[in-house]
């Protein structure tokens, strides 16, 4: 048996997939994370079945490469688990109705069920099951709530006799379903929700973005410098320097081989930055100067992913990115480039056309400093003052705009 996980982008399919199969998938808010689908297996009773995490799609009438792949893969599945964002039922049900029209057994799961309570959304599950004619399971993927019920109900997936509708008829049906199953109670928005709304508006969103990015780089620098000052520097000076001095004595204190392996030694001390030996600067620079900033960058990026800020930044940047010939979510591989250009260029696969991927990859390669380069910027320029670091990044930004 082959089970397909299908749903709109960013509804938690990858997390559901991980819960079902135990296979680790990057569970982020990046748009189009699963452009290349992922396979896994799970136990369904006594049977071992294949589970496929299908690329996110809004419709089975493909307009993008990811939607084309999703539509084609539907023909190979035996059961579909349709993952629906419970907080945005109206938009998600369009794909659900299309799946029901395809005469394939379906189970619908309402993910992010806990968020419906926070937002004052009340959904009548029994009525929704009756109207759709298939099992409907509420889940919270990040905590595992509802996963056991999903596994138990997957064999009960049904394929109701659903007529093929036109687009207008589907939206009319969705409107009728929403009227019957969903009720939204008025409540006051929390300060966090107001902040989320403000983060996608042009004026306030720009201010928030600048504050977030400035704060992120300050945090990266703080974490990186702390790792260097309180961890790696003492480690190299107390443990590795004596080894190099002993090795220097064995090599005679000078000579060609000594300069290659150890480098220069002044006053009986190893200057890891200026010695330029394979075992001195060759180890110290990547491990004690660059690696801490790389680690710090990905820690901060993971934090931004977990709080859901990256998709909002993509929405905010959409207008600007369109002027550069890109979509808003091109900002995501661009941000990845500040960590390392290699995964950033690989991440350009989320962009829809070869033209966009080429533009983004070119900009990342030329005008986005990776963490290694940032470490050198902080190390060489930072000691002269933060204004010089700002000048370097400002120059790179201007180059980025000119090249675009």
Automatic annotation (TrEMBL):
<dbReference type="InterPro" id="IPR027417">
    <property type="entry name" value="P-loop_NTPase"/>
</dbReference>
<feature type="domain" description="FeoB-type G">
    <location>
        <begin position="1"/>
        <end position="160"/>
    </location>
</feature>
<feature type="transmembrane region" description="Helical">
    <location>
        <begin position="386"/>
        <end position="403"/>
    </location>
</feature>
<feature type="transmembrane region" description="Helical">
    <location>
        <begin position="283"/>
        <end position="304"/>
    </location>
</feature>
<keyword id="KW-1133">Transmembrane helix</keyword>
<dbReference type="GO" id="GO:0005525">
    <property type="term" value="F:GTP binding"/>
</dbReference>
<feature type="transmembrane region" description="Helical">
    <location>
        <begin position="358"/>
        <end position="380"/>
    </location>
</feature>
<dbReference type="GO" id="GO:0005886">
    <property type="term" value="C:plasma membrane"/>
</dbReference>
<dbReference type="InterPro" id="IPR005225">
    <property type="entry name" value="Small_GTP-bd"/>
</dbReference>
<protein>
    <recommendedName>
        <fullName>FeoB-type G domain-containing protein</fullName>
    </recommendedName>
</protein>
<dbReference type="InterPro" id="IPR006073">
    <property type="entry name" value="GTP-bd"/>
</dbReference>
<feature type="transmembrane region" description="Helical">
    <location>
        <begin position="203"/>
        <end position="223"/>
    </location>
</feature>
<dbReference type="Pfam" id="PF07670">
    <property type="entry name" value="Gate"/>
</dbReference>
<dbReference type="Pfam" id="PF02421">
    <property type="entry name" value="FeoB_N"/>
</dbReference>
<feature type="transmembrane region" description="Helical">
    <location>
        <begin position="324"/>
        <end position="346"/>
    </location>
</feature>
<dbReference type="InterPro" id="IPR050860">
    <property type="entry name" value="FeoB_GTPase"/>
</dbReference>
<keyword id="KW-0812">Transmembrane</keyword>
<dbReference type="GO" id="GO:0015093">
    <property type="term" value="F:ferrous iron transmembrane transporter activity"/>
</dbReference>
<keyword id="KW-0472">Membrane</keyword>
<dbReference type="InterPro" id="IPR011642">
    <property type="entry name" value="Gate_dom"/>
</dbReference>
<dbReference type="InterPro" id="IPR030389">
    <property type="entry name" value="G_FEOB_dom"/>
</dbReference>
């Amino acid at each position: 048996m082959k089970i397909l996980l299908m749903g709109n982008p960013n509804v938690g399919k990858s997390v559901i997939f991980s819960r079902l199969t135990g296979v680790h998938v990057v569970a982020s808010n990046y748009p189009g994370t699963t452009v290349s689908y992922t396979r896994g297996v799970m136990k369904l009773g006594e049977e071992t079945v294949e589970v496929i995490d299908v690329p996110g799609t809004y419709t089975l009438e493909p307009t993008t490469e990811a939607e084309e792949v999703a539509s084609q893969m539907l023909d190979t599945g035996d059961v579909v688990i349709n993952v629906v964002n419970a907080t945005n039922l109206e938009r998600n049900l369009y794909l659900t109705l299309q799946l029901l029209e395809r005469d394939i057994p379906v189970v619908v799961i309402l993910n992010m069920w806990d968020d419906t309570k926070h937002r004052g959304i009340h959904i009548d599950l029994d009525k929704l099951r009756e109207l759709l004619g298939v099992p409907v399971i509420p889940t919270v993927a990040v905590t595992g709530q509802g996963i056991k019920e999903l596994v138990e109900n997957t064999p009960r997936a049904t394929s109701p006799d659903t007529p093929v509708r036109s687009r207008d008829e589907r939206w009319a049906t969705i409107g009728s379903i929403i009227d019957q199953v969903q009720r939204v109670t008025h409540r006051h928005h929390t300060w966090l929700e107001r902040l989320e709304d403000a983060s996608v508006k042009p004026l306030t969103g720009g201010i928030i973005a600048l504050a977030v990015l400035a704060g992120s780089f300050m945090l990266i620098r703080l974490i990186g410098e702390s790792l260097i000052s309180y961890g790696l520097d003492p480690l190299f000076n107390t443990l590795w320097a004596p080894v190099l001095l002993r090795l220097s004595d064995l090599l005679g204190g000078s000579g060609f081989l000594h300069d290659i392996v150890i480098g220069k030694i002044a006053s009986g001390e190893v200057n890891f930055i200026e010695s330029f030996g394979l075992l001195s600067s060759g180890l110290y620079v990547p491990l004690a100067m660059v690696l801490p900033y790389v680690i710090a960058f990905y820690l901060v990026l993971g934090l931004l992913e977990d709080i859901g800020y990256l998709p909002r930044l993509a929405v905010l940047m959409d207008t600007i990115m369109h002027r550069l010939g890109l979509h808003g979510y091109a900002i995501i591989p661009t941000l990845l480039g500040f960590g390392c250009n290699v995964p950033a260029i690989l991440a350009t696969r989320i962009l829809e056309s070869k033209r966009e991927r080429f533009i983004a990859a070119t900009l990342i390669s030329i005008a986005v400093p990776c963490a290694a380069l940032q470490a050198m910027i902080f190390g060489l320029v930072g000691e002269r003052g933060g204004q010089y670091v700002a000048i370097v990044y400002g120059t790179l930004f201007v180059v980025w705009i000119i090249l675009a």
